[in-house]
Amino acid sequence: MTKWFGWNTGLLLFIIGVVNAVTNQFLIKHFDGRRLVGEILYVMFFSYFVNIFTNLLNSIGVPNLPILIRTFLSCLGVVFFCVAISLYQRANIVMHPNDDTTNILRFMYLKGNSTAAQLVDFIPPIIIIIVAGIAIHNVYSVNVGTVFSFIFNGIIIAASDKWIWPQIKHNFNTENN
User: Can you give the pLDDT at residue 24?
Assistant: First the structure.
């Protein structure tokens, strides 16, 4: 989408995050102002820091590393963020809207199945990739790490729930969410 619209990644992530936060209000079937404001604030800071880290990684030459090293770093990054998602989804204080969507889908619609929730949650990004690819006649930033993420996010999150600090339990209450 960055190539298509010419906007920076942080701005696009912020816009998508706000749309996602509003969508979550519909998924929980009632208005939750604290959740909405928290998610918008989260995505505001998140999108800003993505720009900082993108610039940092570009400046130290990560995109120019050999493909095997970039693949390893991408997959390792996916593992790390899945562990982090597992921990902070269980804490359920303030979340990125997309991670909250996964929690909502998981506990309100998919009987606790994190893998199914993650796969359903990936449908909109996959559609965006296809539409953008058709519009600009090319696909950017979709590589082994993206495919690894699509396939393994839910599995890694579920494993992390079980093996990484298992004393933290999900406090997602389906009646009040």
Answer: 97
Query: Would you kindly state where each structural domain of the chain is located, as residue ranges?
Result: 2-163
Compute CA distances 21 → 28, 47, 81, 117, whole Å: 11, 14, 20, 16
CB 74 within 8 A of CB 67: no
Q: Which residues of the chain have pLDDT under 50?
A: none
60-97: string of b/e by CB count within 10 Å (b at 16+)? eeeeeeeeeebeeebbeebbeebbebbeebbebeebbb
C-alpha atoms less than 13 angstroms from C-alpha of 49 in its C-beta half-sphere = 6
What is the Cα Rg of the chain in Å?
17
Q: pTM of the prediction?
A: 0.83
